[in-house]
Amino acid sequence: MNPDKGTGGTDSPAARLQALFEGHRLTPTQRRIAHSMVRRAADVPFLSSVELAELAGVSQPSVTRFAVALGFDGYPALRRHLRDVAPAEPVADTTAYNEYQQAVQAEIENLRHLAEVLADPAPVTRAGRLLAASRPLPVLGLRAAASQAYGFAYFAAKVHPDVRLLHEGGSMLHDRVDAAVRAGATALLCFALPRHPREAVDALAYAKEAGLFVVTVADSAFAPVAKVSDLLLPAAVGTGLAFDTACAPMLLGRVLLEAMCDDLPEAQARLEEFDARAATRGLFVE
């Protein structure tokens, strides 16, 4: 696995779990289990194989096969190993909460995990530098991720001279990537959230072939877009409601904006200019 595609350089339980999975060729089902374990790194050493299967939405035998694929005799051996390499206190019992509160608590846990990842700012700093230097800067997000791409592009356009939002698929998508490359683009930012459109994976593969450095914000380091990304920044989504929630990916997008501003000397002047024009036009209600 590309060293840029991890959970950060911290010594957190999530980072140690991520290191355990690196170097193994995992099936899609096994990647789903690994993703669930990283998301719940604090309490996964205390889960039974049945509980982990329920958490990942797979069968109990799949969990056993996953443990064997990692080189253990079975899940009990894997769990003993986890208690050694990723010790943590079990998370608080949330069964007393109603389903809406549980969804909020899950998002709080996702944000806590993101904070652990950001203890090593190097990947985000590098991404900000690459995105700031790309003129133009294409920002891709399809279907569920379209709103994340739109939000990033809206704010990025206030400090970056040429941001191009790619939020609609179809036969024109590759043409727009080509146009960005011809105009001088060197990097592309992608937001990729479940369910991952095949078209997004194809578009990233095409962008890489065209010479763009692909930075991706995805729900997991094991997401399908990982193999077509040069630098993947994971931020988990919440799955407790009928539709996924994406507070962590949105916040990571804002962190990327901050990192990008740090590498745009004219960013502050552009923001001040916008504020002055907005005041003159009476754009906002005070």
Describe this structure in words.
Helix 8 links the parallel strand 1 and strand 2. Strands 2-1-3-4-5 form a 5-stranded parallel beta sheet, sandwiched between helices. The protein contains 12 helices and 5 strands. The N and C termini lie far apart (50 Å). The protein is globular, with a radius of gyration of 20 Å. Residues 1-10 have low confidence and may be disordered. Helix 1 packs antiparallel against helix 2 and helix 8 (146-156) packs parallel to helix 11. Helices cover 51% and strands 8% of the residues. With 286 residues, the protein is α/β, with parallel strands linked by helices.
A few lines on this structure:
By secondary structure, the chain is α/β, with parallel strands linked by helices. It has twelve helices and five strands.
